[in-house]
Amino acid sequence: MTKKYDEIFSRLVKSKQIHESVLLIQNTNGDFSYKNEYGGKSIDAPLLLASITKLFTTTCILILREQGKLSLDDKVMRFFDEGKLSGLHLYKRQEYTSKLTIANLLFQTSGLPDVSEEGKKNLRKLVLKEDMNITIDELITLTKELKPHFAPNTLNRSHYADINFDILGQIIECITGSSLEDVFKSFIFEPLGLEKTYLPIGEDDFIPKIYYKNNALSRPSYIKSCRASGGAISTPREMMVFIKAFFGGGLFNKGIFHQLDKYKKLQITFYPIQYGGGYMRIPLGGLSMLFMGKGELIGHSGSTGAFAFYYPEKDLFFVGDVNQSANPATAIRLAIRLAVSS
Hints:
The chain has 342 residues and is α+β, with helices and mostly antiparallel strands. The chain has eleven helices and 14 strands.
């Protein structure tokens, strides 16, 4: 099996767009472990988690739920000053903002647009040109300028949008009365002994460069703006500890997964990814995957090429980074190939 992993990783790093990459594979108890490194990127090197950060935000929401401090059915407006979110979800001349729930945000079923990828003020394109800071209030304003895709809870509809998790981050801070970085630390990093995982806030906090094709970009201000939706830093070794705890019940009662595994397809640009309650699912069998494999991958990937997935069929965890934001699908394809070859 390790020989197949070697071959897959070797083919990956032959691409001219891959300048550095790292891969770590383990089973639950750790008696099987495989690693491969390229371009100076080791399993202890810092990497930008991008949207894998959403798993941290999901964890905090689930812990607060266990503590009885929120329900997934709670209305989002409960946690905000009146007027701040007014007009956020105006669909076909009807206001749905007051109907949005925490579950709508967690499951990406709010219908809200994604300012990172949509509209003339598409943040992804703007950030490629220059670094920028953007506040949650500015994100909300930009979202209000775009049209939602559907009413909340529309049957079989989901639409991936960072704003869903940006708002969840605000709810976490509202409930706890603490900063998101402190909540991440007390709920996740300290209990798991993660010493190199953090949410950057100061000038001294290291933020890795991101490759876009052949250009290594430094975007510290923007990364610090992403926070709950994509701003965390970790290492592959520590992400392995976290992803095992996330799916293994080390942070919250894993019995909640029977409520979270209600998957819906995302917009076509995310195919074949589906979304559940705070995490992704990639089916490996059926016509859509040309009957390539069995089971599913569950976890999350990031737009910069980071990934952290669990493959229950073989009890394997895949963690790594290809660091190429020009083609985020590279990480997904790598994870699929690893699972199918296992």
